[in-house]
Amino acid sequence: xxxxxxxxxxxxxxxxxxxxxxxxxxxxxxxxxxxxxxxxxxxxxxxxxxxxxxxxxxxxxxxxxxxxxxxxxxxxxxxxxxxxxxxxxxxxxxxxxxxxxxxxxxxxxxxxxxxxxxxxxxxxxxxxxxxxxxxxxxxxxxxxxxxxxxxxxxxxxxxxxxxxxxxxxxxxxxxxxxxxxxxxxxxxxxxxxxxxxxxxxxxxxxxxxxxxxxxxxxxxxxxxxxxxxxxxxxxxxxxxxxxxxxxxxxxxxxxxxxxxxxxxxxxxxxxxxxxxxxxxx
Amino acid sequence: xxxxxxxxxxxxxxxxxxxxxxxxxxxxxxxxxxxxxxxxxxxxxxxxxxxxxxxxxxxxxxxxxxxxxxxxxxxxxxxxxxxxxxxxxxxxxxxxxxxxxxxxxxxxxxxxxxxxxxxxxxxxxxxxxxxxxxxxxxxxxxxxxxxxxxxxxxxxxxxxxxxxxxxxxxxxx
Lengths: 281, 173
Ligand code: SF4
Description:
heterodimer, A: 281 residues, alpha/beta, four-stranded mixed β-sheet, 8 helices, globular, B: 173 residues, binds iron/sulfur cluster
C-alpha cells in the first residue's frame, strides 16, 4: 500500500486551479489556430485572433482566461493500492479555495441553489473513480455556466436511427446559438443511464481534441465525431455567433453499455475557454 | 474604426448600425443578474438608486478579484438574455447603452428602438484581453454581492460590435 497525505492533494488541487485558469489547453490552441487559417472573413479572423491574444495575455500575466472561473469540477482516480491519510473531499475543497484565492479567481458558487446568497469558491463537484495501481490522478475542470446552461439529455428508444441522435446533437448546438461563447467543443455521452450519460458528456471534454480527415477513420465513434463536426460547422454560427465555418473546433464522444430498453444521449457544450489541468501523485 | 464616448451618447448612438465596430471610452457600470433584480425592484418601489441610470451604460460583467498591481481582473461579458426581463424597466428610467454577449428577446429589441438605446457585443470569453481597456475600476454598490456588485469602470477604446441598433435591428437577424 502507498500512503498519500491529504495535504499533498490540497496543494496539487490548488496548483491545478491556477494552471487550468491561466493556461489554455494546448489542443484547444491548436484547433483555434487551424480555425483562424480556415476562416476567410475579416471580422471572424479578428475574433479568433482576440481569443488567441486573450490566452497569451492570461498565460503571461497570470490572469484568468475568462472571468467566469466556473463551478470547479474535479475528477479523481484513486489507485486501489493507495491509502489516503486525512479527509480527501475536505482536502480537495480546501485546495480549490487556496488556488482560487491565490489566483484572484472568481467566487461563482452559491451555497444554496434556491436562496442563493453571496458567492463563494466551492464546494467542487467531485467525481471519484477507483482504478488499479498506486497512484492518484486529479483533473480540475473549471466549467463556466454560459455553456453549462446549454446542456441537454434525451432518452431515445433503442430502435432509433443514428441520424436522429445526430439531429439531437446538432439541434442542441443550434439552441446554444451565439450565447455560450463559440467556437465550441462538444462533449457527448452515449449509453449508461440518464445520470451516467450526462457524466460521460462532461468527461468527454477532458479528452484531447484530435481532428483527422474523415476518410482515414475506421473507428465508428471517431467517424461519428468528425461527421458531426462537419455538419455542425455548416450551421454558420461561427465565432461569437457572427457567422463562419468554425462553430465547433472539436466533438468528443464517450460511450458506455446501456439497457436493452433505452439509449440515453447527453450533450455538454464547452465554450472556447475549455480549461482543464491534470496532475498525478 | 469609429470612436464613441459615453458622454456624447445621445448624439452618437443614432448613427450606429447593427454590425458596426466601435471603440468606446468613458464610464460604464457593471451589473449582472442580482444587481439587475435589485435595480428593477428599486425602480418599481420608486426608492432611490445607487447609480444614476440617465444616459448610462451597463456592462453585463462580473469580474474576477483584482490581482495586485492591476486595475481590474479578468472582465469579459456574461450572457445578456438573462437580463432581458429587467431591461425594459431600466430603459424607461434612462439606460442607453448595454454591453454583453449573445441575442436579446424581441421585446427588448422593441424597447431598445422605443428608447433609442443601443446594445453592444464585446469579445466573449476574452476577459484577460478586455481588462487592458479598463483604466479605472471601483465597486460602488451592492458590494455584499461580491463579483455581482456594481463597479464603476472607466474604459478607453473598449472594442464593441453593435448587436442591436437604435432602430431595433439585430446583427443576429
Ligand atoms: S461560456 Fe465560457 S468563455 Fe463564455 S463567459 Fe462562460 S466560461 Fe467564459
